[in-house]
Amino acid sequence: MKILIPGFYIICSIGMGYFCTHYQIDKDMCENISKISAILIMLILLGAFIVGYINEIISGGIEYILYCCGLPRPSRLVLNNSFKRFSLEKNRDLRHKLQQLETGFIDNIKAAKGLAQAKQTTEIDKYQEFYYQSVLARNLFFGHMFSFGLLMIIIGWSWTLFLSTLIIAVLFCWQWWKMNLVYVKKIFVEYLK
User: In b/e form, how buried is each residue of 77-112, taking b as 16+ CB within 10 angstroms?
Assistant: First the structure.
């Protein structure tokens, strides 16, 4: 689902943009589509999977580059108790168990090592659903941004398109960020048990 849903999103966005600007739907077109509908459904599924898989590869790479360029990792934000909503009551115990400084700032590198250590000693079944939700949110955000770029090529500049894309992008980015923090917090909670 983390691959198919963003793939469908991208294909549907581009398809709607293309048909709205280049084609008039007529009776002959509907008849032709109905004749090959079974094949068309299979092609759409295959296309959504391929586009979604490419989106997964690109978005995962961009996320890694962002962390290397200094964007705070969710594990860093949780370990530093940067947000009350995602803070841990037993943060000192967690830092001690991870062999990190019990007070003070933890950077991205130490946070990534601490998260990897916590993942290795916990059961993945306890937080795997949060991982899938986090990846789905990331893929939807980047799929939305890729769709916007392609729609700008197909349709051209439009303030309406830009503003609606910006609002939806902010919502997708917020969900991605929030789900990353929930996922990491869940891992650390399981690690403390």
Answer: bbbbeeeeebebeebeebbebbebeeeeebebebbe
